Amino acid sequence: MNASERAAGVVKALLLASNVDVGQLKSSFSVRLESQKKIFLLQLHPELTDKLGFRYNLYVRGPYSPDLARIYYDLEEVQPAQFRFSEDALAYIKEIASLKNPELVLLSTVFSVLEYANEVNQDTIVDTVRNLKPEYSSDEVKHALAKARELRKRFDLPV
């Protein structure tokens, strides 16, 4: 099994664990968007970082990985990787699995901004996210920022 096949198996296992309908990846933009954001957020967890490690760029709908996109179009034929998650990782996966696309887009964008501007004040972060995502109100961005900080503290995320 080569590195690409291993990565695909891990991606499939994590998408299934986070309640993504992988059978719809090819036909549904919404499912692909959900997959991109969930993998972005999942790989922030220290236990999952080494298993994934996709590079992301910030696009119109938040963080996007072309490498991940190449993988998920062929996931139907891939066997999900078999591995055990710690209780902490399972709790984090469950937390991310509960989010819907609008929350995923905003939270992943907030985390992406925090990667580059972690030490700046809240107003600057909110303004930066609002410039990227004007469809979200300042209150929604503040809520997502609070959620990001809570997840970072609770799960020891590096961002």
Low-confidence stretches: none
Secondary-structure-derived class: mainly alpha
Question: What percent strand?
Answer: under 5%
Query: What's the tally of helices?
Result: 8
Question: Using only CA atoms, what is the Rg?
Answer: 15 Å
Output mean pLDDT: 91
Q: Which outline best applies? A: globular
Oligomer state of the chains in this structure: single chain
Across the major sheet, the strand order is 1-2
Separation of termini? 32 Å
Largest β-sheet summary: 2 strands, antiparallel
Query: Percent range for helical residues?
Result: 55-70%
- By DSSP, the count of extended strands is 2
How do the SSEs run, as a string of H and E?
A: HHHEEHHHHH
Overview of the molecule:
The structure is a single chain. With 159 residues, the chain is mainly α. The chain has one domain. Helices cover 61% and strands 4% of the residues. The protein has helices spanning 3-17, 29-42, 46-49, 66-72, 87-97, 101-117, 122-132, 138-155, and strands at 57-59, 62-64. A hairpin with a 2-residue loop joins strand 1 (57-59) and strand 2 (62-64). Helix 6 crosses helix 7.
Identify the notable features of this structure and list them briefly.
single chain, 159 residues, mainly alpha, two-stranded antiparallel sheet, globular
Put the structure in a nutshell.
This protein has 159 residues and is mostly helical. Helix content is 61%, strand content 4%.
